[in-house]
């Protein structure tokens, strides 16, 4: 199958591109490299340097490539930037999304897989775990813009018969995640500790998140090629983990004892989220397989290797 993936120079979608290629699919990547890196691009994929807001280029690429399926991961995903610049956030996430949907309909795309967000969409839930039926109450522009595209998917299915699958992620972690910005606690703690920085915890360390290792997210996107048509799925581990537990785990694996700097909680951050993942088990035939300890070990190993390579480069220059 020919699949066009947006955002596959970035963290999650680069792993999805690798998996689709390994399965024998023809994969085309569309990314503006605003956050993604060339080194993450799978060399077997054709790459189009393109901003999803650029309607003309998006239309041209879809006309040229004629993909059978689209997997849409490109996004403005800096929650704080969305708060500062809600218009920019909406331009990328909503208008960019509509550009892709219109191009998909115009060129006969059969399936549109969309990376949604669970944490930013459900707001502060009254109880956990949260199922897909839980009312959407985003408390940030990013949560609003990411969720809005789900409405367009529903409408485009109704209007034009474009089939979709929405995968709403918990907190994804793993190799290639960026430590820039405030998302990606694992990446931030790993790089921070490896460069001798004192880790910062916003609040007292008791905030609860639901972490999912990136390879489990990949298998959900593989399953979504054939299953779960016109459905929305929570994709996460369903396990509650505090900020303090993540830091303690990373410190222990690295063998670096540390005392974090506790600072005030940031506005817009929720206390606790954990997802009900039973629907994905039933309809998508998907289950997470990587426990937190194993995922953390693989993530730490990746960042240790990256740090070593950086030192080697410095030595070479010296
Ligand atoms: N990381 C998480 O925990 C998480 C949780 C929930 C949902 N998501 C969603 O998953 C997707 C991927 O997240 P990620 O963590 O891999 O982020 P990432 O920043 O590593 O990847 C995003 C990619 O999109 C590209 N991009 C950004 N704006 C673009 C534009 N205007 N045009 C073309 N390309 C553009 C970037 O260059 C980057 O390569 C996003 O849609 C995000 O909302 C991520």
What does the model show?
This protein is of the alpha/beta class and 318 residues long. The chain has helices spanning 11-22, 55-65, 79-84, 86-106, 141-160, 185-194, 214-223, 243-254, 278-284, 292-317; strands at 2-6, 26-31, 46-49, 69-72, 111-117, 163-169, 171-173, 200-202, 208-213, 231-235, 240-242, 261-263. The protein has a seven-stranded parallel β-sheet, sandwiched between helices. Nicotinamide-adenine-dinucleotide binds at residues 6-7, 9-13, 31-36, 51-53, 73-77, 92, 96, 115, 117, 146, 169, 171-172, 178, 183. Residues 6-7, 9-13, 31-36, 51-53, 73-77, 92, 96, 115, 117, 146, 169, 171-172, 178, 183 line the site of nicotinamide-adenine-dinucleotide.
User: Rg, please?
Assistant: 19 Å
Strand order of the largest sheet: 3-2-1-4-5-6-10
The overall pLDDT, averaged over residues, is 95
Question: Can you count the beta strands?
Answer: 12
Question: Span from first to last CA?
Answer: 48 Å
SSE order, as H and E?
A: EHEEHEHHEHEEHEEHEEHEHH
Report the structural category.
alpha/beta
The number of helical runs is: 10
Globally, the shape reads globular
Query: Largest sheet, if any?
Result: 7 strands, parallel
Query: How much strand content do the residues show?
Result: 15-25%
Small molecules (ligands, ions, cofactors) in the structure: nicotinamide-adenine-dinucleotide
The percentage helix is: 40-55%
């Amino acid at each position: 199958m020919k699949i066009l993936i947006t955002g596959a120079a970035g963290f999650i979608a680069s792993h999805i591109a690798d998996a689709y290629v390994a399965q024998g699919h023809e994969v085309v990547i569309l990314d503006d490299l605003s956050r993604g890196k060339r080194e993450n691009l799978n060399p077997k994929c054709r790459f189009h340097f393109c901003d999803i807001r650029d309607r003309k280029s998006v239309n041209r690429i879809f006309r040229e490539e004629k993909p059978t399926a689209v997997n849409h991961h490109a996004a403005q995903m800096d929650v704080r930037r969305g708060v500062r610049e809600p218009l920019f956030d909406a331009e990328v996430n909503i208008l960019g999304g509509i550009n892709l949907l219109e191009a998909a309909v115009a060129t006969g795309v059969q399936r549109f897989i969309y990376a949604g967000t669970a944490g930013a969409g459900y707001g502060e839930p009254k109880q956990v775990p949260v199922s897909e039926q839980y009312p959407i109450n985003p408390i940030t522009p990013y949560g609003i813009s990411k969720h809005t595209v789900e409405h367009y998917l529903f409408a485009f299915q109704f209007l034009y018969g474009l089939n979709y699958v929405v995968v709403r992620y918990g907190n994804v972690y793993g190799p290639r995640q960026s430590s820039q910005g405030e998302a990606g606690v694992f990446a931030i703690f790993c790089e921070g500790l490896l460069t001798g920085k004192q880790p910062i915890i916003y609040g007292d360390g008791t905030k609860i998140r639901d972490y999912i290792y990136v390879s489990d997210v990949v298998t959900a996107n593989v399953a979504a090629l054939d299953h779960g048509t016109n459905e929305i799925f929570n994709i996460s581990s369903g396990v509650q983990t505090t900020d303090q537990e993540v830091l303690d785990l990373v410190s222990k694996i690295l063998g670096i004892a540390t005392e974090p700097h506790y600072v005030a909680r940031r506005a817009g951050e929720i206390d606790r989220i954990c997802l009900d993942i039973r629907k994905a088990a039933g309809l998508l035939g998907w289950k997470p397989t990587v426990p937190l300890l194993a995922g953390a070990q693989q993530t730490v190993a990746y960042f240790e290797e990256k740090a070593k390579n950086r030192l080697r480069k410095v030595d070479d220059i010296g």
